[in-house]
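Exercise (ungraded).
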Amino acid sequence: DSGVTQTPKHLITATGQRVTLRCSPRSGDLSVYWYQQSLDQGLQFLIQYYNGEERAKGNILERFSAQQFPDLHSELNLSSLELGDSALYFCASSVSVFGEQYFGPGTRLTVT
Amino acid sequence: EDQVTQSPEALRLQEGESSSLNCSYTVSGLRGLFWYRQDPGKGPEFLFTLYSAGEEKEKERLKATLTKKESFLHITAPKPEDSATYLCAVQKGSGNTGKLIFGQGTTLQVKP
């Protein structure tokens, strides 16, 4: 158990819908990262927050947004969902901006 | 362009048959190289961080080494429970983000 929690574990929804994925980092970690893992793309960085502020964006679609709250938990919002958004979404956390990251169990999103 | 390439894509070993996994990287300024283990449908589990050429880290049957262009994960006398996908990732020294750039992984199967 990494100490990073993610909810829900599974999510099945229809195209065009909007969903919210939730992540609680390890106690004491200030950085939260979101990654997407699909079969053909591997693990891809989406976005990083550090102590409530956006630090960096990767290949994150405009339909996706995220935020980190004062208690340091983070949410990833995915809207206007398409079939191609089906993937595993992982949250990771680290103590500082850099260094090793600890991953949560992931949310499996299926868009039908 | 920053790139991480892992080989082989898949590796089948008999229990007790030692081998090595390779991770080649091209990145402008390496801050750290990370090895993770991932079981099917689970989040990546942190194994090692390597920061400079010549560095080695060990944990049970695993040993990771780093040169200026690549890293190796040596598996000595593997057991069936070592079967998993092993991911290599790099973190750049430049920029203001700790995002990880992942390779596609090596899927290891150890047969009893």
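Further reading is listed at the end of the chapter. For now, observe: The CA atoms of residues 29 and 93 of chain B lie 5 Å apart. The two ends of chain B are 41 Å apart (CA to CA).
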